[in-house]
Amino acid sequence: MYIQHFIIAIALAVSLFSHSINVSAEIIAGEAVSFEISRDGLQSKMEQLATKPGVDLDSKAREMNWYQLADENIADQQWFSYLSSSYQGFLETAPDKLKTEIQNIINKENKALFNPQQDYSIEELNILILNTKGELRALNNKISKLESELNKLTLRPQQMREETLAAKQRLKQAKSDSNIARLPTENKYEYQAQQIYLHTLINALTAEFKKLELESASNPLKVQLNKRSLEEIGGQKKYMQSILEQQEALFEKLQLEKAQSLEDELLKAERESVKKHATIQNIIQDNIQWSRDLQSIVRAINQYDHATDKIEAYKKAVEEDFKNADKKIQLAGLNPLLGRVLREQRNNLETNKQQYQRQVDIADETGLISLALYKIELRQKQLNNIQDELGRQVEQVQMSAEETQLSAEDIQQIRRKYSDPYRQT
């Protein structure tokens, strides 16, 4: 009697244990899978299959391929789930961001870039101008990135419709293939591996549908936030451009004042040189001419910088016009007449660009600057050995004038005139 109860208890325990295994195991095509359908589970299964003896190599390769494809499907499913979570979080926070008013955010650092009431030296202003231009380049880069992102967001709805249609077709085919029963002659293990692949593919496509749905809902909000960012950065850029204009205006003013002061000094030196010996007058006139040439070169370089800034600004304007023309052509769709008009407008941009470049030809100015700099460098080489240069000048003086006409003080003055001003030049 006790033996019978014991046997029944054992049988019941075995039955419950077997049932628990079947419940935990995943059912694919009506059969329980002996391993967990996950990336780790598939990896373990592939490692076991690789070392399993007595299996046909071709059959093993086909079975392994299905498991690898299933692993890729699970990775895609995880990625789509991550994106869905990201889009869901964005949909929850975006409305609050859009409710806030647009503010022209001006950093405290930018406000401290320039104070019109402060006295600046030319060197300080030059550094401030370089910093301001750096800030403007950074803002232009941000604007360029935002515009590129906006263009992608604008084109994204059509791409999502195409992706949704393609996913529907794949899902329909995967479900159809998963319902095909195994043929009697078909390898059982290969069939099960293929069914696991189809199972993971269906899950991945389902996750993709959810991702596309949430992305479609978030796309208009992203477009609005992108445009707000463009407006805010545009305000910062406008502010920085006004600062740069003030800095350059003051810089030009200080340069003119410095040039006028130097010219006054040169005129004074020229008047005082009338009382000097003829040789000393020539040296002073030479120094004055070099100083004036240097001032001309500085002015030419400033004009060159202004011309290059104008060309750069025009280049950006043309690029923006090209972008706008491309957007209009894309929006024109299949309208041949509108598309042809827009293409003609875009082609005219290139013609206008060439005409502008002909009007703003800085090649001649560049050549003149290079020639002037070459002359200075040549003279600088001659003055590297100041003693030889002084010796030649004194020799010329002694040959062209009597000793009574040129005193020792005059010769010493020649040395001073040659030593200091030319070294400064």
Summarize the entry for a quick read:
The chain is an all-alpha fold and 425 residues long.
Written overview of the protein:
It is built from 11 helices and 2 strands. With 425 residues, it is mainly α. It has a domain of 224 residues. A hairpin with a 2-residue loop joins strand 1 and strand 2. Helix 10 packs antiparallel against helix 11. The longest helix is centred in the middle third of the chain and has 85 residues.
Q: Helix tally?
A: 11
> How are the strands of the biggest sheet laid out side by side?
1-2
Low-confidence segments, ≥5 residues, pLDDT <50?
A: 1-25, 421-425
Order of helices and strands: HEEHHHHHHHHHH
Category by helix and strand content: mainly alpha
Task: Please give the radius of gyration in angstroms.
Answer: 41 Å
Task: Give the topology.
Layout: H1 2-24, E1 27-28, E2 31-32, H2 39-51, H3 57-99, H4 108-111, H5 122-178, H6 188-272, H7 278-332, H8 336-359, H9 363-382, H10 386-400, H11 408-424
Antiparallel strand pairs: 1-2
List keywords for this structure.
425 residues, mainly alpha
